[in-house]
Amino acid sequence: MERTAQRSDARPGAANRPPAPVPAPADDRDVHPPARRIGIDIGGSKIASAAVAAEVTAGADPDDLLRHHRSDPWESRDYEAAVDGLARQVRWLLDELAWPDAAVGVSVAAFLTPDRSGIVEALNLGWRDRPLARDLSVVLDLPVTLHNDANAAVWGEYLLAGSPAEGAFVLLTLGTDVGGGVVVDGRLLTGAHGIAGELGHLTVDPGGQVCVCGAAGCLAVYASGAAIAAGVRAAVPAADLARAGGGAPAVTALARRGDERVLAVVDRAAAAIAAASGQISRVVDHHTLVLGGGAADLGDPLLAAVRRHLSAGVPVGPVRPHPHVRAARAGNRAGVLGAADLAGRR
Ligand SMILES: [Zn+2]
């Protein structure tokens, strides 16, 4: 199943170079995933892994689907050492379950090659031009599929959601950055170069603050977990946050208590999410918008504010139908679940 890795030039800052060859489109619905699947979610601070033996069905409890789910901190960011560590983890799962083999799905925060066999660049890992799927497949002698982390997460959420297969389903992950993913008519959008769904860097305020990506006024500037936390720290004295328990739980507690200083920050994030949803709607007319990532733990105060901004007609007009807005169900298990389910698919 492995194809030769192709270097993708279609990433931010590379617009002047000729586009990389585009492979023929795959159709996920035409293939049958194998019964034994292993998912690995390579995050910036830890690596999660689990085995999945059952079909992922709507309404299922992720804890019932994921076997031997674990999350381990990084030992070394060295690429070769990481491949060895991932292979050890897969072999451990195979041993524990007495499985002769499995298809392996890997989720990673990275720009991928057009055929998704390798990493073009993983900024938070410091990896460039690493044929991860091919290398891991060779070491394990098992099929390995690679997906962008937000794409794997939206697939996991979509499978559990029980949403209509027809139409578009969108996930925004509000973490250190804002990730995104889109499923249309039951098919995960990966794009010509494997990076579809970069929704966190939609422009919601052209004259706004400059984002880490270099553009101004991206959604991530206002709605990432990091942006919300920084906004709260600027608005609420440290002593007040400490009294409320400190850290992210304090922000959630104060928001649910109706603290106006925190709600103003949450409202700013919600307005940005609603503005981005309006842009997304113009392209895919999504029926569902799911909010995941750490900041989604804010729960009702955030969800209600997003719904309020959407209903106020920002920015698509009050007569346009708005998506159903709700919190993610699989939490930080969406990535490993989605990666596992995508294993063995093209
Ligand atoms: Zn940006």
Automatic annotation (TrEMBL):
Region described as Disordered: spans on this chain: 1-37
Extent of Basic and acidic residues compositional bias: 1-10
Family: Belongs to the ROK (NagC/XylR) family.
Name of this protein: ROK family protein
Naturally occurring in which organism (per UniProt): Nakamurella endophytica
Taxonomic path: Bacteria, Bacillati, Actinomycetota, Actinomycetes, Nakamurellales
